[in-house]
UniProtKB/TrEMBL annotation:
GO terms for molecular function: DNA binding. It comes from Pelotomaculum isophthalicicum JI. Residues 1-49 form the Helix-turn-helix domain. This is Helix-turn-helix domain-containing protein. Pfam families: HTH_17. Signal peptide: none annotated.
Amino acid sequence: MNLEEAAEFLRISQTTLKKLLREGEIPARKVGREWRLSRQALLKWLESGQVQKED
């Protein structure tokens, strides 16, 4: 899925998602200039408890 789809799936803004991607917090691959994310990898990431709440 692309950035827009992933942000909607995670219910976060695209800006927040981009920040998490740059920091390596979310599993994804960059293809050219665009990020690609796997729904399965995102579900696994969410289930693993690696989600960190912002203060």
